[in-house]
Amino acid sequence: MTLLQEAQYGLMIYVMLNPLVWVLLRFKMVRKFVRNHKLFHPNTISRMRIYFSIPLHFVTFWFCLNKNYEAYPEAFSYLLLIYVALFASDGTDGIVARACGLVSDEGAILDAKADKITDVPLFWIFILTGVVGPTNSILLILVILVLLMTIADIIGQC
Fold it and tell me: Would you say the C-alpha torsion 136, 137, 138, 141 has a positive or negative sign?
């Protein structure tokens, strides 16, 4: 499977997950369950994104630097799926917070930090190691757009 196909599957998962979460949270029983279990609290989701992404960046950097994604494509595919889960949880924490009445200033700050810690290093790793470059022009454009949006978000929060 090529990197472009991985990105397409990841986008499909992301697009399908958030509406599914939104539909489930329409049920009072599900909202009550989320409020009573710390594991599903939006702040916990943001913290888990931070905790998982930091060691994941080191593994990704090693994979990309040594071109191990070519030698072990299946392992690299699993690594990308973990990132897809992290990206999907980005939208999920906001949906859960609003639906369950768990919106807080701490959650807004945590979510913004988790976005930057998860997204930005991954894209820099891809660019610096040559995984995304002139040969993958579509992915390069997507990566540059995401980086520009993230920089604009950082400037807007200052």
Answer: positive
